[in-house]
């Protein structure tokens, strides 16, 4: 009898948990609230099953091809939206991703990521809108990420959304010169700040 009651209690508890989790299925949270949730004291943050969605179409002005020239190098960004499904927990997030190409003045391609899959580490992957929704924050990892080619990218629309200002902040905290050529960090592919124009 005790075993039967114990089994019933376990089944009831699992049933309640399943109902709680399923109640969050389809819960849409505007993507612009992501930053506030991350920086709040909300105990559980974003509930399982939620969808951080671009319900107000904030991504639309960022989408497309952006080009510019910096230090005699042509830079091209292709910014596109990805519906990201977390592999860690039941959570869906709209994100901006960037594929890019950098070409020297002589035509030599420094790097091109246009043919890479979204999962590739060289794709610049979005995180969230900043605290006032005026810029978007992304993670960058270059070919030599352990030697200093990694950091955070901030993208801000300017000039009536016809241009973007890109600010790159390298993360030197993860630099391990022991794994680098000649024991030194490699040069950055991206400069600290540049402007691209929508094509």
UniProtKB/TrEMBL annotation:
Transmembrane segments: none annotated. InterPro entries: DUF6705 (IPR046551). Residues 1-18 form the signal peptide. The keyword Ubl conjugation does not apply. Keywords: Signal. Residues 1-119 form the DUF6705 domain. This is DUF6705 domain-containing protein. The lineage of its organism: Bacteria, Pseudomonadati, Bacteroidota, Flavobacteriia, Flavobacteriales.
